[in-house]
């Protein structure tokens, strides 16, 4: 038996606001950050996970992680049954659950611990997380999912049917993934703080690098958005998809009006046009801006809100996030919901370490759940990968499938030391 002996947390922050990397209409000065957790076991194995934040909220997440320690230290962690039990115990803590339930700061902290546990178990199995998850039986996978609140849209038998339907082709899809990688798109040209020349240069570079889709941030000023989107469209040509992202900037009517002004430049999707909690607002926007697609998910709080977005026909693209909900277990539920409704999953990855994590979730979807990549792409941003031991690798606009054991979540010790807040050398 493997027993967790210690759980440590670190406040890690990168000063990305200095160059406006990550800037958008709602978040003009982000410092990409990670509330970082390490689980150490008695056999020497270790699992790493984190909550992505953009600065001062990080200290709140570190405190939330510390509140979970009693659920973790002393617990056995050997395989899928233990992973399911750990998730259930933390989500089911009634006193902590009162703060949500199953949303917000505590739920994100639970997700970091769950992800760290999966990192540990997959490392001990000698497999990258995506391959470890895809090696589990359909029955083991559905045992990870909490179907409470979902059965009006997806029950255990329906989930098993989805997984069993995908099971025969797992080996072939794994081989293709290792050979060809997974399609990506890049947000790197489109941060709102970049000037026009930088937008044009980076848009052209993205096409040269093999990307078939880029994304621009919008929502600050309409005239600026029209000009910038025109510049990007001219730079990439008519055949490259250009998505836009408002980061929750608008109300429903404003979103429709703004997209009517941008429509001549053929935006592929509008991301987060309004509040992530406004299911009916997303549905109304989608009805009025078609054929422009509506995408959301990076701030969706849990599987229940995703269920409603799908039931209401409110989104064309589901953008799950590895660090927003309750970790791998809840993201399995979300992948299964998306497969049930036939909606493609294109994860959010615009933050420190998110590219490293979500690549695994999309690859699980391909191998074990939906079985396809049609209209599915993973977001890519080109900064901060150098701080990870197993960083994301992009070739010709595609994610190279990770082969190192684990969840690709482990940061280099020198980066943890340098960017620890407030006493790391980068901050001192």
From TrEMBL:
What Pfam families does the database record attribute to this sequence? MR_MLE_C, MR_MLE_N
Q: Which residues form the Mandelate racemase/muconate lactonizing enzyme C-terminal domain?
A: 196-292
Might you name a Gene Ontology BP term for this protein? amino acid catabolic process
* Highest taxon of the lineage: Bacteria
EC number, as in UniProt: 4.2.1.68
Q: Which InterPro entries match?
A: Enolase-like_C_sf, Enolase-like_N, Enolase_C-like, L-fuconate_dehydratase, Mandel_Rmase/mucon_lact_enz_CS, Mandelate_racemase_C, Mandelate_racemase_N_dom, RHMD-like
Indicate whether Ligase appears among the record's keywords. Answer: no
Name the coenzymes or cofactors required.
Mg(2+)
> What is catalyzed by this enzyme?
L-fuconate = 2-dehydro-3-deoxy-L-fuconate + H2O
* A Gene Ontology molecular function term of the record: L-fuconate dehydratase activity
Is Magnesium among this UniProt entry's keywords? yes
Q: Which UniProt keywords apply?
A: Lyase, Magnesium, Metal-binding
Protein known as: L-fuconate dehydratase
According to its UniProt entry, this protein's organism is Lapillicoccus jejuensis
Q: What's the source species' lineage?
A: Bacteria, Bacillati, Actinomycetota, Actinomycetes, Micrococcales
């Amino acid at each position: 038996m493997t027993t967790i002996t210690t759980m440590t947390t670190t406040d890690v922050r990168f000063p990305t606001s200095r160059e406006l990397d990550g800037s958008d209409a709602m978040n003009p000065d982000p410092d990409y950050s990670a509330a970082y957790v390490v689980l150490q076991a008695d056999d020497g194995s270790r699992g790493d996970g984190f909550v992505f934040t953009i600065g001062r909220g990080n200290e709140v997440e570190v405190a939330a992680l510390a509140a979970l320690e009693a659920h973790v230290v002393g617990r056995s962690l050997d395989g899928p049954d233990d992973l399911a039990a750990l998730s259930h115990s933390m989500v089911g803590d009634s006193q902590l659950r009162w703060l949500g339930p199953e949303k917000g700061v505590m739920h994100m902290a639970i997700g970091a611990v769950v992800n760290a546990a999966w990192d540990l178990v997959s490392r001990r199995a000698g497999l990258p997380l995506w391959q470890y998850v895809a090696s589990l039986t359909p029955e083991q996978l559905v045992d990870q999912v909490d179907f409470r609140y979902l059965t009006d849209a997806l029950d255990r038998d329906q989930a098993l049917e989805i997984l069993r339907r995908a099971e025969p082709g797992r080996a072939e899809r794994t081989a293709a993934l290792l050979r060809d990688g997974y399609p990506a798109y890049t947000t790197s040209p489109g941060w709102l703080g970049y000037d026009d020349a930088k937008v044009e240069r980076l848009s052209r570079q993205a096409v040269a690098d093999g990307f078939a889709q880029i994304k621009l941030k919008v929502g600050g000023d309409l005239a600026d958005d029209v000009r910038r989107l025109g510049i990007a469209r001219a730079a990439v040509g008519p055949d490259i998809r250009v998505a836009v992202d408002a980061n929750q900037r608008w109300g429903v009517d404003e979103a429709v009006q703004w997209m009517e002004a941008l429509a001549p430049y053929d935006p592929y999707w509008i991301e987060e046009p309004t509040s992530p909690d406004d299911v009916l607002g997303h549905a109304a926007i989608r009805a009025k801006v078609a054929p422009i697609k509506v995408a959301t998910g990076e701030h969706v709080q849990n599987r229940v809100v995703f269920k409603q977005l799908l039931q209401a026909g409110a989104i064309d693209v589901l953008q799950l996030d590895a660090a927003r909900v309750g970790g791998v277990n809840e993201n399995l539920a979300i992948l299964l919901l998306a497969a049930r409704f036939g909606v493609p999953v294109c994860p959010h990855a615009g933050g420190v370490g998110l590219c490293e994590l979500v690549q695994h979730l999309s690859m699980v979807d391909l191998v074990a759940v939906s079985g396809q990549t049609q209209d599915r792409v993973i977001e890519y941003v080109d900064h901060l990968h150098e701080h990870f031991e197993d960083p994301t690798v992009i070739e010709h606009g595609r994610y190279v499938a990770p082969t190192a054991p684990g969840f690709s979540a482990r940061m280099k010790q020198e980066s943890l030391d340098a960017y620890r807040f407030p006493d790391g050398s980068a901050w001192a």
